[in-house]
Amino acid sequence: MMQLRANMDWMLKDLADSVPQTRQVVVLSSDGLRMAQYGADTDAADRLSAACAGLQSLAAAVAAEFPHSNGTMRLVVIELNGGFFYLMAAGAGAYLAVLADEGVDAGLMGQRMRDLVARIGGHLSSPPRHDGQAT
């Protein structure tokens, strides 16, 4: 697990380095637990992960309003004063979150996030938890 996390941190750094204006990259489980991070301290990454879990849940509720949706969130982008937030599904029960400054190339960010997910999506899966334990 430690080797996978080290590899994941390196890949997140690669994403951040390839898209100027990237501030923070986090991989998290659907229940809001940080799995890997780059560009922020652990506390900031944990806060972002927890917020993403709520946002993913909100996106699933909105998806229920579409008649042919299976309720799966693929991508959420939020423009804020000062920057952008991206949340992308990255495997079964896993998500990729990015914070970027307002000068970021949004198209490049989306492309690099999709490329990363396609390359390592199977490794980003997080098994369901029961009573706080992965199954």
From TrEMBL:
Task: Output the InterPro entries linked to this UniProt entry.
Answer: Mycobact_SerProt_Inhib_Rv3364c (IPR053141), Roadblock/LAMTOR2_dom (IPR004942)
Q: Which UniProt keywords apply?
A: Membrane, Transmembrane, Transmembrane helix
TM annotation in the entry: 83-104
Q: Which PANTHER family match?
A: SERINE PROTEASE INHIBITOR RV3364C
**Which lineage ranks, top first, belong to the organism behind this chain?**
Bacteria, Bacillati, Actinomycetota, Actinomycetes, Kitasatosporales
Residue span, Roadblock/LAMTOR2 domain: 9-100
What is the name listed in the Swiss-Prot or TrEMBL entry for this protein? Answer: Roadblock/LC7 domain-containing protein
